[in-house]
């Protein structure tokens, strides 16, 4: 690392690329101990003092599944200091089905004199400027912690990492960049403050990063909350002091309804990015979330549907009931006039597609529904009746709780446009002029490999519809797909996916033979199916 920094200080401005053979991956001891820590976390226990025991609400390991890696992402890796996610690497290639990654490490490239001295002493760096460094091939995804946002300079070749509003980070306690740099060996055992980023210099135009101190809630595995909002509970990190940030900690914002006694506006943090021992505090009674309202259940034809605030559901548009739209339930009201039947209304905030990867081809008609991508939630609610909501969906929520991602995943069933073009208009949907097919997603690592399904008629009368793998495809099918029943939908045409379909596997008799079929809710199928 010193050799790299010396070449930068001499003004070469270039970091060489190295072959995988010359790269030394993180020491095995680090990978093993991080793996052990994850296993302990799965069982709600960790250190000897039981401070990491207690209820858990989110599965952080899902973030690190093989299917979540894609080319162009930047990931945080566990380092060899104290196994915190301070190293960064860019994903260059993902090989499947035998999982293997080609990555390029990011090397710190400071230009401030104090930061250069800090880096020269091999003290940890997790913010500021970086350059692309060594290449490495790896099959070990246990070294990866989480995806980070990395801003690329247009002309400088630098990549910049900085805390963003809504994220949770660790700060070095008693940090002093000059003292630590002059006596590095006396400052390699770290203690931390855990903070929430309230504002950053990118989103708010500020000259510093505003943070609020978080405290670990007693009785929970890794729930952190703010004790107050006064000056003693917040601080400002000036631009020249951003090296005080140790590392980002993956987290999920909690609703407060997950369990009794949870504090309001709390976060659940990833234990794999926390020190073994964290001081706990009892949650004051005035900060405890009010009891969770009871769920409302609906009888008759809506039997089995249980609606609660905070859930995400799919629903239809004004022209038909095909569930191509999504929203989150904000409120449920029940009104009854005199002796009339009670009327239930569900108040839903719709999701609106916000951003796509640069290579994705967008609809020209902005009113066309978007079935997959990243969404934000509109402020105004729509009032729906329970019959309008077809099935619950489970988007991946961003750490700040403001973005929701819905993408085709392996094993899921989706309705796709049989023929797709970006110039299709919503009028074609309203007039039912477009054709659709059903597919099962087989692979979602790079593009989407799918299996064509066909409808099957069963002997007994059934309310739902049944599908099985197709043996062949009609000649009128999409030319680019090819004749096979397994074909690929490129990521650039991901809007060809209309909407997901809830399904379950059942065994039914077909032509005198018992076979496994997909049973799907007919309410979620396109008009006319």
Descriptive report:
This protein is mainly beta. The chain folds into two domains: 2-287, no CATH class; 296-524, no CATH class. Helices cover 8% and strands 36% of the residues. The protein contains five helices and 33 strands. It has helices spanning 2-9, 28-42, 113-120, 177-182, 426-430, and strands at residues 74-78, 85-95, 100-108, 128-138, 144-148, 151-152, 159-161, 168-172, 192-199, 209-217, 223-225, 234-237, 245-248, 251-253, 267-269, 280-281, 296-297, 306-307, 312-315, 325-335, 343-355, 373-384, 389-393, 396-397, 404-406, 413-417, 436-443, 448-456, 465-469, 486-489, 497-501, 503-510, 513-520. Strands 8, 9, 10, 11, 12, 13, 14, 15 and 16 form a nine-stranded mixed sheet that branches. A hairpin with a 2-residue loop joins strand 32 and strand 33 (513-520). The longest helix is centred in the N-terminal third of the chain and has 15 residues, at 28-42. The radius of gyration is 26 Å and the shape is globular. The N and C termini lie far apart (62 Å). 31% of the residues are buried. Residues 1-32, 43-49 and 297-303 have low confidence and may be disordered. Residues 37-58 are annotated as: Disordered. Residues 54-256, 288-509 form the DUF3444 domain.
Number of domains: 2
Write down how many β-strands occur, each being a DSSP E stretch of 2 or more residues. 33
- N-to-C CA distance: 62 Å
Radius of gyration: 26 Å
Largest sheet: 9 strands, mixed
What count of helical segments does DSSP give? Answer: 5
Gross morphology is: globular
List unreliable stretches of 5+ residues.
1-32, 43-49, 297-303
Helix content: under 10%
Strand residues, percent: 35-45%
Strand-pairing-aware structural class = mainly beta
Task: Please state the average pLDDT score.
Answer: 82
Region (Disordered): 37-58
Domain DUF3444: 54-256, 288-509
């Amino acid at each position: 690392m010193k050799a790299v920094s010396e070449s930068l200080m001499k003004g070469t401005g270039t970091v060489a690329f190295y072959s995988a053979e010359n790269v030394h991956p993180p020491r095995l001891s680090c990978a093993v101990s991080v793996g052990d820590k994850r296993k302990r976390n799965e069982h709600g226990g960790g250190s000897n003092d039981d401070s990491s025991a207690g209820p858990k609400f989110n599965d952080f390991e899902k973030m690190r599944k093989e299917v979540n890696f894609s080319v162009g992402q930047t990931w945080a890796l566990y380092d060899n200091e104290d196994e915190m996610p301070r190293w960064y690497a860019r994903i260059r290639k993902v090989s499947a089905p035998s999982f293997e990654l080609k990555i390029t490490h990011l090397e710190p490239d400071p230009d401030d004199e104090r930061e250069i001295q800090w880096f020269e002493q091999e003290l940890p760096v997790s913010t500021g400027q970086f350059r692309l460094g060594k290449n490495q091939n790896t099959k070990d995804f246990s070294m990866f912690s989480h995806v980070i946002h990395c801003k690329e300079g247009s002309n400088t070749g630098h990549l910049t990492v900085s805390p963003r509003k809504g994220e949770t980070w660790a700060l070095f306690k008693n940090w002093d960049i000059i003292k630590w740099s002059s006596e590095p060996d006396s400052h390699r055992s770290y203690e931390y403050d855990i903070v929430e980023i309230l504002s950053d210099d990118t989103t708010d135009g500020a000259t510093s990063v505003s943070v609020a101190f978080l405290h670990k809630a007693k009785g929970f595995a890794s729930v952190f909350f703010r004790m107050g909002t006064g000056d003693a509970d917040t601080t400002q990190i000036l631009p020249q002091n951003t090296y005080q940030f140790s590392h980002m900690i993956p987290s999920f914002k909690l609703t407060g309804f997950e369990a009794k006694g949870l504090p309001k506006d709390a976060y659940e943090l990833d234990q794999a990015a926390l020190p073994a021992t964290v001081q706990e505090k009892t949650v004051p009674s005035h900060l405890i979330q009010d009891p969770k309202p009871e769920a409302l259940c609906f009888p008759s034809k809506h039997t089995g549907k249980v609606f609660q605030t905070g859930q995400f559901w799919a629903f239809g548009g004004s022209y038909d009931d095909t569930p191509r739209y999504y929203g989150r339930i904000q409120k449920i009201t029940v009104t009854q006039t005199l002796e009339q039947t009670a009327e239930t209304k569900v108040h839903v905030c719709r999701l609106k597609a916000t951003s796509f990867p640069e290579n994705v081809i967008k609809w020209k008609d902005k009113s066309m529904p978007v079935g997959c991508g990243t969404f934000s939630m509109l402020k105004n609610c729509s009032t729906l009746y329970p019959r309008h909501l077809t099935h619950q969906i489970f988007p991946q929520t961003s750490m700040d709780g403001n973005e929701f991602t819905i993408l085709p995943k392996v094993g899921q069933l989706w309705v796709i446009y049989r023929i797709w073009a970006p110039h299709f208009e919503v009028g074609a949907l309203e007039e039912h002029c477009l054709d659709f097919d059903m597919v099962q997603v087989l692979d979602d690592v790079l593009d989407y490999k799918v299996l064509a399904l066909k409808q099957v008629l069963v002997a007994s009368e059934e309310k739902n519809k049944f599908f099985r793998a197709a043996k062949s495809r009609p000649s009128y099918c999409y030319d680019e797909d090819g004749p096979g029943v397994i074909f690929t939908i490129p990521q650039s045409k991901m809007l060809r996916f209309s909407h997901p379909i809830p399904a379950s596997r059942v065994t039914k008799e077909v032509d005198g033979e018992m076979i496994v079929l997909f049973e799907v809710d007919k309410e979620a199928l396109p008009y006319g199916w």
